[in-house]
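Progress note, sequence design subtask.
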């Protein structure tokens, strides 16, 4: 942890769990936290302000012009509103670090506002469990202020990956990861439930070991290529899986979504091929069909 901070005066927005962890990290790094901005006063917010030696406030004012940084840790739905209320009170060159799970489009809007005021916005996406690893949780960083923010949090022990794109890309990548991890979470739970009812949970892990050896990227791209050839046949296997879930007394919630995807393939000629094609060409087939479906709806 650095004792010679790259930032000296940083205001904190929010007083929730993430704000508490990162606020404590700022103090440990020797950074002064003069203000904590909240929507309403609470015992928890007052306690955090006392711990950090900060003034609890309900709105930003001219005093915020003395800051060289702001750390926003509110809910995603509040991120854009808060930024519009705060940025006009900041000096040019201030680093505005946003840890909120905001919509990527909101982050782009915030970036445009930041540029109007000469502020450097850092879109920071948290890529782990803050309660488990605190301010050393891995981050993705994008936007004009990504380099400065990354340098500071790396000095506090956090792994930070800087993305070359625009503000909003850190959140886009986080959401892409969430699509995969949350989908696997739901599918894995449903699979384990059925395996347990069948008395085959240990054996299930054994027959899935080839996926561990293969690697996720190879598996995903192989599915992309082979689905155009084998999707219709695989639909029948998913029907069998749903039947087994129903016989086991387990609602096939995730499996129904999987079946819907395969049924769409079986009913769409453009998603059926006699032989496999390359990864990029296969992806273009799916994207073109999605475009046509969207234009018809």
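Output:
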């Amino acid at each position: 942890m650095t004792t010679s901070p790259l930032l000296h005066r940083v205001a904190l927005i929010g007083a929730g769990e993430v704000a508490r962890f990162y606020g404590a990290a700022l103090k440990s790094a020797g950074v002064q936290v003069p203000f904590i901005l909240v929507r309403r006063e609470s015992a928890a917010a007052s306690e955090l302000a006392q711990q950090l030696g900060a003034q609890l406030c309900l709105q930003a004012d001219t005093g915020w012009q003395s800051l060289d940084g702001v750390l926003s840790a509110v809910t995603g739905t509040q991120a854009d509103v808060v930024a519009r209320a705060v940025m006009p009170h900041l000096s040019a060159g201030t680093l505005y670090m946003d840890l909120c799970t905001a919509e990527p489009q909101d982050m782009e809007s915030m970036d445009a506002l930041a540029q109007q005021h000469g502020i450097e916005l850092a879109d920071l996406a948290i890529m782990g469990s803050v309660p488990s690893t605190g301010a050393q949780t891995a981050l993705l960083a994008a936007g004009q202020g990504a380099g400065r923010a990354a340098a500071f949090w790396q000095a506090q022990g956090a792994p930070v990956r800087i993305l070359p794109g625009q503000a909003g890309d850190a959140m886009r990548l986080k959401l892409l990861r969430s699509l995969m991890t949350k989908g696997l979470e739901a599918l894995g739970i449903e699979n384990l439930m059925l395996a347990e009812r069948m008395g085959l949970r240990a054996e299930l892990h054994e027959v899935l070991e080839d996926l561990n050896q293969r690697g996720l990227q190879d598996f995903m791209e192989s599915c992309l290529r082979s689905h155009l050839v084998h999707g219709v046949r695989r639909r029948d296997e998913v029907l069998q899986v749903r039947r087994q879930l129903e016989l086991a007394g387990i609602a096939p919630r995730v499996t129904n979504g999987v079946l819907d995807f395969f049924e769409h393939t079986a009913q769409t000629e453009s998603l059926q091929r006699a032989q496999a094609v390359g990864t990029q060409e296969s992806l273009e087939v799916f994207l073109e069909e999605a475009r046509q479906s969207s234009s018809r709806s």
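The chain has a mean pLDDT of 95. Work on this subtask will continue into the next period as scheduled.
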